[in-house]
Amino acid sequence: MSSSVEQHSPLLRDAAAARRILRQMVLIRRFEERTEEQYTRARIGGYCHLAIGEEAANVGAIEPLTDADYLFGSYRDHGTALAVGSDPAAVMGELFGKATGVAGGYGGSMHLVDVERRFLGGWGIVGGHLPIAVGAALALDYREADGVVLCQLGDGAMNTGAFHEALNLAALWKLPIVFQVINNQYGMGTSVAMASAETELWKRAAAYEMHGERVDGNDVDAVYEAASRLLQIAREQRRPALLETLTYRFRGHSVADAGKVYRTPEEIAAWKARDPIELFAARAIEAGVLTADDVAVLRRDVDTQVSDAIKEAASAPSPDVAHLYDNVYGDAGTGEQFARMDTAAPFGERRETRNWRT
Amino acid sequence: MTYREALRRALDEELERDDNVFLMGEEIGRFEGSYKVTAGLWKKWGGKRVRETPISEEGFVGAGIGAAMLGLRPVVEIMTVNFILVAMDMVVNHAAKISQMFGGKINVPMVIRTPGGAGAQLTAQHSQSLEVMFAHTPGLKVVAPSSPADAYGLLKTAIRDDDPVLFMENLILYNQTGPIPDDDGDEGLVPIGRANVVRPGDDLTMVAHSYTVRRCLTVADRLSQLGVQAEVIDLRSLRPLDVDTVVDSVRRTGRCLVAEEGWSTFGVGAEVAARVHRACFDDLDAPVERVGGAEVPMPYAKPLEMAAMPLEDKIEAAARGLLRDCGVL
Prior knowledge:
heterodimer; A: alpha/beta; Rossmann fold; 2 domains; six-stranded parallel β-sheet; 13 helices; globular; B: alpha/beta; seven-stranded mixed β-sheet; 12 helices; 38% helix; 18% strand
């Protein structure tokens, strides 16, 4: 470890900071490993996309966010939620489809949310949340608020029309937003080279007169440094940016994909040799900020925390089917608006099954 | 006051009433709106409250959703309903889902205003009535006023509603005149989900929305010369649909015709007919009749366009057929 890294790494400034960062990354890793296991036990349904390998990209970019800032994520959002500080038991509860989940069991793996921490969603349509994140930034600008939006996306979203429209509007309107493309190099089984004419994704920013840059997404220090800087510029100067964090998912696209037919064993091994957690742990130990024992204790703590989260989720109640119709609308007057639609409603749509939010 | 002016007054008053309300859309500022609904508002309120956008419907509808999630009340104008199809993902996959998908923790208080309708030789890509696509979707509310008073009152209600509302206007209606309340308070508010009996009658119930209500009124006048009094119901809202008002009427008249400018198949008439058949099975003298646009892409040539539209003659012919079946004519 060179002394320059220590000097340039605010994450290694003291043991508490290093421990927090490492713990968040280890939490994501362990949570996702156990999620995969729980999925195979059929306690989790639907699609399930793991963030294993992408811990530094998540934690490094989310760490600089303040209480004024907003966060948007893709459907690969477990790591996003954990990095922003959501309760692991409530996140696991959502994966289990329980009433105690972050979205009450209505959203599932792809639609995690934490309004209190201003994490406004995991979103299931590739690229679809980008214009919405722009709207959040527009609202901050409208109110002359201090906040900034961090909008995560995958490399697959780069080629949607929504990406183009969102980045153009963000730059045109000088909005406080940073787009973080977590380039894990494959959209499902399609490599960036097969999908993008320009494979250096950060260069797309130039088309919008926007700052773009690429950092090593497995180096949490590098991600943190770049994200801090770009978020600050967006906040203070209303100049949005595109930050490419180059990383790799150690697992397949989802738990249903082994991730092996479109990637070589050599490629996977080469990236696993650059494990973001091992890189940071080694750096912290080498810098004398943490000891090997510290790391081992931390890992054991996280194991227990995740086991407890699973136990809590498993024993939590499922949503009551009497609440099937809850929250489809938010306006308090909705029940009255729809009351005259109950007559001759199809079977199953009768009024007595409804329980509007008021 | 025209329908267009009624909309403009509603927008102006809501901009005045609530700082969170802002307008967004293509050409709504300096150009004063493609159909001049927003004329003068940019000059009065400035670019922050009346935000001009590039041609990026997916982008700015999405931006409206995001702004609404943070508590603003965007009123997004889509120049004509045909262009909303490029933003369909934002409306159906996003706006309609957010409240429930995130466990009821986030609302989307947004209005999308857009005109539909045919009759000006605008051809296949600019003459559609697509409101049923949205009325089909849980999570959305859909309203379609036919008079200046309802345009005024429903737009104000929609802006104050905490859910995404698709506000369907109509190109031919913009010049329609009619009274609206003088008071700029809450007097003129029109509730979502309440139909309006615009012409009373005991012999036939005619159900319509938007400009087709006007056509039905003309047909009702013609029928009255034959001694038939048709009741005309303006649905005003499609989702929620005021079934009660229709059913109350059909129980009295025993006959029901539903007219709409859009295609009948899977249309408003299909839904109304299903409800009426179920609720009024024993009251009906004949099956519910439906009239809609010809099920073709709208052609250009004037005779072809007129033949494709559910104009007064076509509605009248359907009404006469229904009445003949019932032994009335």
